[in-house]
Amino acid sequence: QVRLVESGRGLVQAGDSLRLSCAASGGTISSYAMSWFRQAPGKEREFVGVISWSGGSTVYADSVKGRFSISRDNAKNTVYLQIISLKPEDTAVYYCAAQRWMAGVSRAPRRDEIDYWGQGTQVTVSS
After folding, report:
1. Which of 67, 71, 58, 99 is nearest to 86 (CA)?
2. How far apart are the two ends of the chain, measured CA to CA in Å?
3. CA neighbor of 58 nearest in space, from 35, 74, 75
4. How far apart are CA 83 and CA 67, in angstroms?
5. Per residue in 38-55, pLDDT tens?
6. 84 strand-pairing partners
7. pLDDT value at position 104?
8. Could you tell me where the beta strands, DSSP code E, fall in 11-120?
9. Which residues, other chains included, contact 42 with Cβ-Cβ below 8 Å and sequence gap of 6+?
10. Does residue 102 have a pLDDT over 80?
11. Which of 20, 37, 107, 113 has the lowest CB atom count within 10 Å?
């Protein structure tokens, strides 16, 4: 059973940059594609981006392209979400998720394709 734990600065200012981490334990994530989702207050959880098991391919939601970047370090069993030029509308709980995709990534995963979820980490962007 893989356990995912997200972490990062919780309160930032508009225009700042931020890196969130998702550390896995209880198993290796090297054979999993890893996704990030977010859920803003009063809104549905939305897809942010996904990285293939090798790190060789990524897909991002149109709303975050150019500002969000996902990377991974399989040796550290950790995935990262780098965000630049933060906006107040980026305020949300950010979740990482694992899905057993052994090929490259070309789309967002469906909810039923997610094998593991993290518990989420709150990011608040003040204006």
Report:
1. 67
2. 40
3. 35
4. 6
5. 999 999 999 999 999 999
6. none
7. 86
8. 11-13, 18-25, 33-39, 46-51, 58-60, 68-73, 78-83, 92-99, 116-117
9. none
10. no
11. 107
Residue 11: C-alpha distances to residues 8, 14, 18, 66, 91 (Å): 9, 10, 10, 22, 9
In angstroms and rounded to an integer, the radius of gyration of the C-alpha atoms of the chain is 13
| C-beta of residue 51 within 8 angstroms of C-beta of residue 34 | yes
Burial label, 97 (beta-carbon count in 10 A; 0-12, 13-18, 19+): buried
> Are 117 and 56 contacting, i.e. CB atoms less than 8 angstroms apart?
no
At 56, list the tokens: 């060789």
